[in-house]
Write a sequence for this structure.
């Protein structure tokens, strides 16, 4: 991946999924570079965005703006649910989604299925002060497996699905990378179908849903497939300066058929949590579903 | 400016105002490059964003995403006003704001004050099919002068301020470049004060307000100064992938003191206009003022 850092010390993102445009960050120091069983893992200290995690040449997070993503992908589904107790996180190895889920006192169990143990290890080492802060949470069960295809996951989920005991997940959050590489199958209808089967009544799914400026046909295809599986399907977005085109969306599906399911929060952050949050608020929640007409026309049809 | 296009034909934006980060577009062909009396003007055909206008090394517009900026800076103030008849555009030489203003049938006069005749000429030549479509509008009076400092502008405005005739502008839109270079004085309180004096009762101002991710202290300073001048001051934003950090905001000031002035539209696009708009809608209007807490805390205090 050294080729991605030029001789003036600029890291340039690989642009497989966004041809013709490129975002770069000035590198202070490369802190880590390895190849796991699944992908290339790079961590560097940037000059103006804190530490940066890069997988397969694509920026996953910077310490300066990660909150805009982590808060939204976690709190949009969690504050849409009256009392989420059982949560599954797919992906999210950097720990940021886990950090946000752990902030909900009502959550009793957090299962996490991250394909790449290498990402978790690297994050615990280099992002211990930012995203990887909740790996010690007593509610967490961490499994390393392919959530979409690996029999180990089926087994992990089955453990939760034994008759008479496990009522299903209230919220499933899929914090995946792009559908090029290890996360490809996470954008397939079959995976959404397996998530539906693992939900408790009224449960909801929130997945990394790419960027409306770049991948509207892909988003439209997944949203349309989800409409055959769930009574409520919505698309929301957040703004993250270091993601391609500065924006990323969420495909959200719920078993709750009521009119404002997902788009209006039914709980709100209070006290200390309210002060901690930098991007999420109940008003931001509702506004995140308001799409410009160019996207609205494509996704609501 | 040739140094900004590397030997692999990538144009990289100059990063004076956003150190440590850089956005690049792949160049198909350079169509124009000149130096006007005020600034460096570059036009190129990009591989994936259509034609691109660059001033002093900073992207002003691409044909692929310009609508997200032009529609919002124009329609936020225009649809907040019950019947805007007299509109002043400061800057906006590419013609995009003029195109949007001209879509309002109730507008009777459009004065435009663009410092650089070179930008207008270049835009008429290279963006005749996209932004520079309304320069032939019979309602338009175009003046080339410095709106903040040049006596010619004072004269132009005075023409409108003669006793017994001119009631003032209903809407003033300031589509300026960044406060480094010719637009610097447009971010000073004195300029906001002169705009206030040129407004009709209930009139409003909407100015290019930089990016909350990059320039919150600058925005906060201008917003705070405006609060001493106007009863209503708000900040809204839009998402533009090719602007730094993918987002740009608007500082809006109104002489209307009512509770929802600016933040709720009082008119809505209908018929053909409704179909034409790609970014603006009444719901997008309201959502544009909903800021994430990290910005809200800084600007509302």
């Amino acid at each position: 991946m050294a080729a991605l850092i030029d001789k003036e010390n600029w890291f340039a993102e690989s642009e497989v999924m966004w041809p013709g445009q490129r975002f770069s960050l000035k590198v202070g120091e490369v802190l880590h570079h390895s190849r796991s069983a699944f992908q290339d893992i790079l961590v560097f200290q940037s000059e103006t965005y804190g530490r940066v995690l890069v997988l397969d040449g694509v920026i996953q997070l910077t310490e300066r703006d990660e909150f805009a993503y982590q808060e939204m992908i976690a709190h949009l589904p969690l504050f849409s649910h009256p009392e989420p107790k059982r949560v599954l996180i797919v992906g999210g190895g950097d720990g940021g989604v886990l950090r946000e889920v752990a902030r909900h006192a009502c959550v009793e169990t957090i299962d996490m299925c991250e394909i790449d143990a290498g990402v978790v290890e690297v994050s615990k080492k280099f992002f211990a002060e930012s995203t990887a802060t909740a790996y010690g949470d007593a509610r967490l069960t961490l499994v390393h497996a392919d959530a979409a295809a690996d029999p180990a996951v089926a087994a992990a989920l089955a453990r939760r699905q034994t008759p008479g005991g496990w009522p299903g997940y209230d919220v499933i959050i899929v914090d995946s990378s792009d559908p090029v590489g290890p996360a490809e199958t996470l954008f397939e209808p079959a995976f959404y179908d397996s998530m539906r089967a693992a939900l408790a009544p009224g449960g909801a799914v929130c997945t990394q849903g790419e960027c409306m400026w770049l991948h509207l046909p892909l988003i439209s295809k997944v949203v349309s497939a989800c409409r055959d599986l769930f009574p409520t399907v919505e698309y929301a977005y957040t703004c993250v300066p270091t993601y391609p085109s500065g924006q990323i969306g969420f495909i959200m599906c719920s078993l709750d058929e009521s009119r404002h399911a997902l788009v209006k929060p039914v709980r709100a952050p209070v006290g200390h949590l309210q002060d901690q949050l930098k991007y999420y608020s109940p008003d931001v929640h509702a506004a995140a579903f308001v799409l410009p007409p160019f996207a609205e026309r494509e996704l609501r049809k």
